[in-house]
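F.,

This is the one I mentioned.
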């Protein structure tokens, strides 16, 4: 659960970092989520699958489930994210 929380923080930070270039919205959140998924979830699943000799079907199912899970979480985090508005006097 702690690692999932850390992934969420990294995803929100990445969304905030790429938002000025890609613009706000779910598309940018999905880009951030896909990066987090690839680095933090897909790569370890692929490594464990090779090391533990898990079948291809189970590996694909785990990759698909974690991709959907991560993208939904990234979009939800982006929906909650708001930048501070600066007003001039």
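My design for it:
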């Amino acid at each position: 659960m702690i690692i999932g929380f850390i992934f969420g923080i990294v995803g929100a930070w990445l969304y905030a970092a790429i938002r000025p270039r890609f613009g706000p919205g779910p598309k940018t959140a999905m880009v951030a989520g896909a990066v987090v998924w690839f680095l933090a979830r897909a790569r370890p699943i692929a490594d464990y699958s090779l090391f533990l000799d898990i079948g291809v079907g189970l590996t694909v199912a785990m990759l698909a489930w974690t991709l959907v899970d991560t993208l939904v979480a990234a979009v939800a985090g982006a929906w909650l994210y708001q930048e501070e508005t600066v007003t001039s006097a």
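The chain has one domain: 2-80.

Talk soon.
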